[in-house]
Design brief:
Elements: H1 12-15, E1 20-27, E2 30-37, E3 40-45, E4 49-53, H2 58-68, E5 78-82, H3 88-96, E6 102-106, H4 110-117, E7 133-136, H5 140-146, E8 151-156, H6 171-174, H7 176-185, E9 186-196, H8 201-210, E10 213-220, E11 229-236
Parallel strand pairs: 5-6, 5-8, 6-7, 8-9
Antiparallel strand pairs: 1-2, 2-3, 3-4, 9-11, 10-11
Length: 239
């Protein structure tokens, strides 16, 4: 399968180096492998190839930016990041919010949390060390169901988006039941942003059916003008 987060252009010093396997994890029927090449990190999924690469995170940054720019007037906001990845969305959310903000991170795979506490954390400047961050090693769907009317913003980057391939269970996040849970977990006026490798008109319709005011943006993976095109949905829970 072609990697949907294709490697970014490499500099000459890294391009001649081989990737070195640092760690493996098999949890919840998902086999993940962490690789390093110089200052570049890669997380890969068995049989599917590269899941994410530290040299391309522009769309992950945008996932936080599109949420945070819509809650600038909220005092002491509480945000939820679903899917830690390499920490870029979390780091950007921390940079865009004040000292009174709280950010809950829901990451199902404990190894991903540990990798971010170890050497991998350097690529996003170790955002897990920020005292505003709470880490839950839980399914983000469960977190949303348990915490209704709690969050001012929810940012979801779980798997490949609605067309998930890492875990079949991720389908439940993007179905109508999952969207209803996200809607209920937001405060009135709250914003939901979702990352996806592809556009999906059927998913847009499900968001509308759940009650969200919906818009979409196409974001490049490496910079504003470079890299693969990814899709981000922005859903607002009406006041």
């Amino acid at each position: 399968m072609t990697c949907w987060r294709a490697p970014a252009c490499l500099n000459s010093s890294n391009s001649v180096l081989p990737f070195v396997l640092l760690a493996t994890s098999t949890e919840h029927s998902v086999a993940l492998k962490l690789y390093r090449r110089g200052d570049e990190f890669s997380i890969r999924v068995d049989k599917h190839g590269e899941l994410m690469n530290s040299r391309q995170h522009h769309s992950e940054d945008a996932l936080a930016e599109l949420a945070c720019e819509r809650i600038t007037s909220v005092q002491s906001p509480h945000l939820l990041v679903g899917g830690l990845g390499m920490g870029f969305t979390l780091a950007r959310a921390l940079a865009l919010t004040g000292p009174d903000a709280r950010i809950t991170v829901s990451e199902l795979i404990p190894a991903v949390v540990q990798w971010n506490r170890d050497d991998l954390g350097a690529v996003a400047s170790y955002p897990l060390l920020d005292q505003r961050v709470e880490v839950l090693e839980q399914d983000v769907g469960l977190v949303m169901r348990q915490r209704q009317n709690t969050f001012d913003a929810i940012m979801l980057d779980v798997d490949n988006g609605p067309d998930s391939f890492t875990r079949d269970d991720n389908d439940s996040l993007y179905g109508l039941r999952g969207l209803n849970s996200a809607y209920a977990a937001l405060k009135p006026g709250g914003v939901l942003t979702l990352w996806s490798a592809f556009k999906d008109p059927a998913f847009t319709r499900r968001m509308l059916k759940a009650g969200f005011k919906v818009s979409e943006q196409t974001i490049r993976s490496v910079s504003a003008k470079r890299g693969a095109r990814h899709n981000i949905w922005i859903g607002i829970r009406p006041v």
